[in-house]
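User: Hi! I'm working on a homework problem where we have to compare a predicted structure to a textbook description. Could you give me the structure for the chain below?
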Amino acid sequence: MDDRSFSAAQDFLLSVKTFWTVDVFTKVKAEYQANIGNLDNSTSATPEIEDLLSDSTTFQYFAWLERHLQRFKYSGRYGINTYYSEKRNTFSNILSNEERSEDYLELTPGFELPNYYQSVDIHQHPGGLWGDEIAGLVYERGARTTTPLMGSAHKDLHHRFTDLALKDISTPIDILDMGCGFGKSTKPFYDILNESKIEAIDLSEPCLKLAAHDAAETQRKNVKFRQINALNTKYDNESFDLVTSTMLIHELPAKEIGKMFEEAERVLRPGGRMVHLDFYSLPDEFTKFIHYGHSERNNEPFMKGFAELDLHELLTEKGFINISIVPFSEAEGVDPNNHSYWRFPWTLIAADKEVF
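Assistant: Happy to help. Predicted structure tokens:
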């Protein structure tokens, strides 16, 4: 496949996704609002909304597009996975340059992946994020169109998150980035905190290789990417001043989320801060209905379990104080509580470790 054909096809899919995000979503919401009086208990239950919209052609179209635009993006003749597979030799040679990235990468021979991580092709990513050496490249390319309305004019949400995570924190500090993926969440930290030490961990070897390659490209010496499970990092107690993650928590089974918070609390120094960006704030039943549907249609099986946790109670139980769970604006001018298009329920989750 030539580059021009691939780019044209992906641009077409992005334009259709924008249409889905704005036009189709708006029509679905309008149908819901026009028929809300037909609900027995108003907006009290997501199943009632599903019954209300089950015969709606507009909603069926919305759900079909959500499922299959993602599938087309990754698979098929012009899919990202197809494109990188055809150019495998070119890209695998880049990522296998171990001498260049060894200062930035530590893999674990025989590393055992959790069963839940391998049980589904998350995000409809073919073969998951672990099974193919090019998976990190495929994931990185797919992530570019996760938020189709933001475009290049906006400050990247990862940079916005970094600014908030570092607010009122004196540097240099020691940072642990959990579930770093291909390094997009880590890069804003190691780019601006030259004197800080940054550890970034993930389960996926292909993603970590890409992250280390990118760090090596910029010759940043303050970051290390390691293949480590965030539920059991084996770092020493009280090793970090800041623990972060972006879009990690909703990919954990509900029973594992508490373990992740316990690990974060263990490795934080007294007075240290934990800050996460994820999908949690669901202000009304319609938003919840759409979000739960996304969980099913996009192979995100643990979203619902996370959304139904009493997060404040769980964090309190794990010993955190100064807990803050607030909607997050992914771009300047976005009002998380007043928008007319589909968007993720971005939420900033922060808490401190108590000083004894």
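For your comparison, note the following. The mean pLDDT is 91. The beta strands are 105-106, 174-178, 197-202, 223-227, 240-246, 268-279, 320-327, 346-353. Good luck with the assignment!
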